[in-house]
Amino acid sequence: MAAAAASSAARRFLFPRLLIASRRLHASASEGPAREASTTSFIHPAAVVHPDASIGQGVSIGPFCTVGASASIGDACQLHAGSHVMGDTDLGEGCVVLTGAILGADLPGRTIIGENNVIGNYAVVGVKCQDLKYKPGDECFLHIGNNNEIREYCSIHRSSKSCDHTVIGHNNLIMGSCHIAHDCKIGSNNIFANNTLFGGHVVVEDCTHTAGAVVVHQFCHIGSFSFLGGGSVVAQDVPRYMMVAGDRAELRGLNFEGLRRNGFSDLEVRSLRKAYRKVFMPAISCQSSFEDRLAELPARPTVWTIQIQFLVDLLYLMHEYTIQIASDRMPVNPD
């Protein structure tokens, strides 16, 4: 168990740093050394930059860009032709905003984007949510971390109310035409293929992978190291380490390829496989309930690792949440 925990800790320590290094190398090769060579900002005469905007050193603002009065542009950022930064928007150092992208909105609230992010062509990031519960005048927020690549035509919305936030972590690859709705909580090191759509309040943990044209229903929870097959319609929570596919999506086994790519050992994978079979593939003659099978896992040391603990904790939470939702929907007895 100690060895498994150590290998997991090493994996979580190294993976984000390797991903950051590879993306920085890609950025330096594609953008050239000009970003670091000068501390003088360049603003094209055809750009419209409000005098109250905060512009860092070494910033490049191309023609037909607009930068609002409350915007803050960090050092060494590049705004390509026809991109726009609006409202109270904070753009961190080293970000690249490609042609046609729109960041923020002239609405109450704030959009915060971290360092070394790439915002693709015609992406819309930090605009008003598409939720009828939104009340005009409410302050709504979007927080995005560092080293994310957000590709063309993506849409990422602010929260629907002032007491919540839409949050995206670090080192995510969000491919073309993806949608992340209001109040979503997205972790780090995720890969979302083209046309992945997340409804409101979806929670996505770390190191997940979606294939193309995936739809995730609002309030669903997607566990770490899971894989969502192409064209899936996900209407229920997805446990950690699992692979799901279909309309409506069903469990298809463990995400073996994802576990291998993320450095899980053979012992860890075998342990997870035994736990999966115990919980989700009981024998036909088995009379135990889901709760009973789940409770038996901690008593089976041959399959007990720190990953199993994560899985059990998450399954318990999902099961209790499902029971609560079902009870809330039960009709009230008129008698």
Structure, briefly:
By secondary structure, the protein is α/β, with parallel strands linked by helices. 26% of the residues lie in helices and 23% in strands.
In terms of topology, how is this protein built?
Blueprint: H1 2-31, H2 34-37, E1 42-43, E2 48-49, E3 54-55, E4 60-61, E5 66-67, E6 72-73, E7 78-79, E8 84-85, E9 89-91, E10 96-97, E11 102-103, E12 109-113, E13 118-119, E14 124-127, E15 140-144, E16 149-150, E17 155-157, E18 166-168, E19 173-174, E20 179-180, E21 185-186, E22 191-192, E23 197-198, E24 203-204, E25 209-210, E26 215-216, E27 221-222, E28 227-228, E29 233-234, E30 242-245, E31 250-254, H3 256-261, H4 266-280, H5 290-296, H6 306-329
What this model shows, in words?
- The chain is an alpha/beta fold and 335 residues long.
- It has two domains: 225 residues, Hexapeptide repeat proteins (UDP N-Acetylglucosamine Acyltransferase, domain 1), CATH 2.160.10; 63 residues, no CATH class.
- Helices cover 26% and strands 23% of the residues.
- It contains six helices and 31 strands.
- The longest helix is centred in the first third of the chain and has 30 residues.
- The chain is elongated, with a radius of gyration of 23 Å.
- It starts with a helix and ends in a 6-residue tail after the last helix.
- The N terminus and C terminus are likely disordered.
- InterPro entries: Acetyltransf_C (IPR029098), Acetyltransf_C_sf (IPR037157), Hexapep (IPR001451), Lipid_A_LpxA (IPR010137), Trimer_LpxA-like_sf (IPR011004).
- Keywords: Acyltransferase, Lipid A biosynthesis, Lipid biosynthesis, Lipid metabolism, Transferase.
- One of its GO terms (molecular function) is acyl-[acyl-carrier-protein]-UDP-N-acetylglucosamine O-acyltransferase activity.
